[in-house]
């Protein structure tokens, strides 16, 4: 028997769902059947929102975080202290720090880290934007919150050298973040502790 | 090809994401040379992942056979080489060189020892990082069978003269040249004796070693050079 048209579409849906991290054949099947059998309305909403997000979410022109606007809500918020800039690797790190509620300054999102062996160099981290902000003279402290992996440390050192000519305070999240520790997986109290005990680096 | 192994010493040279949920480690071992280890379910095994970082010695167990093995266990065995700043960039360069230059599954215990001694030297902040890197490059080439000829000309009979210039052929060795871009004889001898006393000799050694290494890498380009402009 030839596969029918609907059969093909189901196969395509299962394949499409597997682009999500951690979703294999079995979970894709469970999700697809749930949407088709029990919640077609929810499925429709999911598809619409996803399409809109993919079309409209870009990067903040000031901090490179995800946003639909030119500037993200954090950069637009007049209550936030623009003179404190926390540099993180990913939008997930911003979310973790925001949830921990320990920081009221602004961010800079690298969207990666220095990884020389993979050919990811300084040019791939949007640093010209950060240099612009540093040169603008409005930054008083750069808080480096890259992960404690070898690449995160290499990135931290690069940022420190980058900031040197501007004679501002440069600090690094305190020890206590385990080696290889990724910010987004730290619990709130550890995150708060390492943030409040950040140490100036020279 | 070697078989499954347990509690073997090894050091991670590089780690990258592999098929979404796994990681692929390039590992240097004394007994099995450079091997590729797949870490399955990498994201979920955060406890172990902190350990799977470069510059620390591990005890590793793996299963499987063929080109890539599957990591089954990893334990740290001693403190790690805490490199920082420019020294960290130097360490990453060593890793990239070993990753790119060593064939897989070719046991070379001396390379492992050379690597650890070089990390020891980089870890001592009073060491001269550029000298440490040049000697690592020289000795690594030697252990891989690509050793440089530095005290004799390519004919293996005429001694190198400190006052002549040479063109270095990676296969043959040095040949006298009048061209101005040649390498100075005194610089060849300095690298041979591992004593860089005159200004420029270390820079000459860097230029020579880079070109010979590039010759053996073929079309592969090293990236950590970009961070190492000072060394
Ligand atoms: Zn922003």
What does this entry look like structurally?
The complex is a heterodimer of chains A (202) and B (231). Chain A contains 8 helices and 7 strands. By secondary structure, chain A is α/β, with parallel strands linked by helices. Chain A folds into 2 domains: 48 residues, RecR Domain 1 (Helicase, Ruva Protein, domain 3, Orthogonal Bundle); 130 residues, Dna Topoisomerase Vi A Subunit, Chain: A, domain 2. In chain A, helix 5 links the parallel strand 3 and strand 4. In chain A, helix 5 packs across helix 8. Chain B is an alpha+beta fold and 231 residues long. Chain B has 2 domains: 69 residues, Nucleic acid-binding proteins (OB fold (Dihydrolipoamide Acetyltransferase, E2P), Beta Barrel), CATH 2.40.50.140; 143 residues, Recombination protein O, C-terminal domain (de novo design (two linked rop proteins)). Chain B has 6 helices and 8 strands. In chain B, the strands form 2 sheets. In chain B, strands 1-2-3-5-4 form a 5-stranded mixed barrel. In chain B, a hairpin with a 4-residue loop joins strand 4 and strand 5. The longest helix of chain B has 17 residues. Chain B is elongated and about 60 Å long. Chain B starts with a strand and ends in a 14-residue tail after the last helix. The mean pLDDT of chain B is 91. Chains A and B meet through helix 7 of A and helix 2 of B. The complex binds zinc ion. The site of zinc ion (ZN) has 8 residues of chain A, from helix 4.
Give the helix/strand layout:
The complex is a heterodimer of chains A (202) and B (231).
Chain A: H1 5-17, H2 25-37, H3 40-56, E1 58-59, E2 66-67, H4 73-76, E3 81-88, H5 91-100, E4 105-109, H6 127-135, E5 141-144, H7 150-163, E6 169-172, H8 188-196, E7 199-200
Parallel strand pairs in A: 3-4, 3-5, 5-6
Antiparallel strand pairs in A: 1-2, 6-7
Helix pairs in contact in A: 1-2, 2-3, 5-8
Chain B: E1 5-18, E2 22-29, E3 33-39, H1 46-49, E4 56-63, E5 68-80, H2 86-101, H3 109-123, H4 129-143, E6 165-169, E7 173-176, E8 183-184, H5 185-193, H6 201-217
Parallel strand pairs in B: 3-5
Antiparallel strand pairs in B: 1-2, 1-4, 2-3, 4-5, 6-7, 6-8
Bound molecules: zinc ion.
Zinc ion is lined by residues 60, 62-63, 65, 71-72, 74-75 of chain A.
